[in-house]
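Deliverable D5.2: sample structural annotation.
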Amino acid sequence: MLEGLNQAMEHVESHLDQPIDVADLARIAVTSEYHFRRMFSALAGMPLSEYIRRRRLTVAGAEVLAGERTLLDVGVRYGYRSGEAFARAFRAVHGVGPGEARRTGAALRSQSRMSFRLVIEGSSSMRYRIVDKGAFCVVGGKVRVPLVHEGVNPAIAAFIRGMDPEAVRRLAELSDQEPKGIVGVSDHIDPSRAEGTELDYYHGVVTCAEAPAGMAALDVPAGAWAVFENSGAFPQALQYLWRDVFTQWFPSNPYRSRPGPEILRVRVFDDGARADAELWIPVERQAA
């Protein structure tokens, strides 16, 4: 997997002045486009589109300072259709416009080329199992919320506080399969995983029962799931669990993520500072 990612990064470098098709990068990495985007954002800490934009404007910055091409020619070479669009993008990354940078020789910002390597530490292991699960339904309250990388998601917390406790109790009685009890379900997550992008959040149960009046339902097809368990500080350990799945587990195992909701079951301890968690990620086995 890491070798394929690095080959894809080489392709990016050789095509900075050309259109870059993410489907081509996924083929080079021998994985799906969906999984490639998610793997990249987890490993790199930024969306693929942002990395490509920064690399293009880094190289464009060097050409602006060199003065061998007109500013418009430089902008067009790196995908901008007008001088104004190039100037706006250039200023967003470098803090100055291209004209000012050329006149004054201003210091510019540089996005380094990325490569990926596996660091073997041997200090931790991940508890997981693979579950083949038939079709089921998620039933519960639904809200559209922004993605938050660190700390409690205030939109989700406010939504849960606003739910009728009696309705939540009745929902819990509909739980008839794993993962049991009230769960948090995230669906339609932007592949970039960028902070602030939106997702559908369900607070409910996994069931075969019909949704009660006023509740939403999400039909989930049959498939394989990787189920991870951990315990630790709440909510930090839960967010780190997702990160570790994509930065450690996927590169080391013959699976890739597939489209579908992510399901999190949490049991918060009485002190509210720690929790046990079980994270369900939809997966499929990589072709040999």
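Annotation notes: Confidence is low (pLDDT under 50) at residues 120-124. The two ends are 12 Å apart (CA to CA).
The annotation will be released with the project's public dataset once the embargo ends.
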